[in-house]
Design brief:
Nucleoside Triphosphate Pyrophosphohydrolase, alpha+beta, 5 helices, 10 strands, 3-stranded antiparallel β-sheet
């Protein structure tokens, strides 16, 4: 069961300790935690996709948020967070040669999503209980734009990535994740 995946994760800081506790409690109280039909919160899977040298990150320019950022999406009932993260990374960027740096969760974050319209439907404010993985991709793979979700795909030097993010609320999350990437790169 997907709850075990979260239970096994060892938080890297106090924020993730609290996120882990909240996510596990949410699972216990919500049979539909993996489904968008839960209008308050639901699980999503994301990925920080880096090149082999881990000095660049693959970003997409999200249509809804009008900002550059990671790849990912809704679990829509799928309990395998890692497979969702990989599937979304491939779909949103066109990269075919992609693999997990590790099968372990890289980060836990709860993300507030503002109300918006998607495909003509109103989406209310809600939370994404986000599970992030670190994926490695071939920088030479051909990239493509998935026009229904993004308007750009590109490799960005990690030290420059935060400067192109137009969602101030996401900056602390990306800074944390890039710090984790740096720790992996140095190990």
């Amino acid at each position: 069961m997907y709850k075990n995946t979260i239970e096994k994760y060892v938080p890297k800081n106090i924020q993730e300790e609290i996120e882990k506790k909240a996510m596990l409690e949410f699972i216990d109280k919500n049979d539909d935690a993996l489904l968008r039909s839960n209008l308050i919160a639901h699980f999503t899977s994301s990925a920080i996709v880096v090149n082999k040298e881990m000095d660049k990150v693959l970003f997409v320019h999200h249509n809804i948020y009008n900002s550059w950022g990671w790849v990912g999406g809704h679990n829509d009932g799928d309990e395998d967070f890692l497979s969702v993260a990989i599937k979304e990374a491939k779909e949103e960027t066109g990269v075919k040669n992609i693999y997990p740096y590790s099968n372990d969760i890289f980060s836990l974050d709860t993300i507030y999503v503002y109300n918006h319209f998607k495909n003509g439907q109103y989406i209310t404010d809600h939370l994404h209980l986000n599970i992030t993985y670190l994926l490695v991709a071939d920088e030479e793979d051909k990239l493509f734009v998935k026009i229904d979700e993004n308007s750009g795909v590109k490799w960005v030097k990690i030290e420059e990535a935060v400067s192109i993010i137009d969602e101030p609320r996401m900056v602390p999350i990306y800074k944390k994740l890039f710090g984790y990437v740096e720790q992996v790169r140095k190990s």
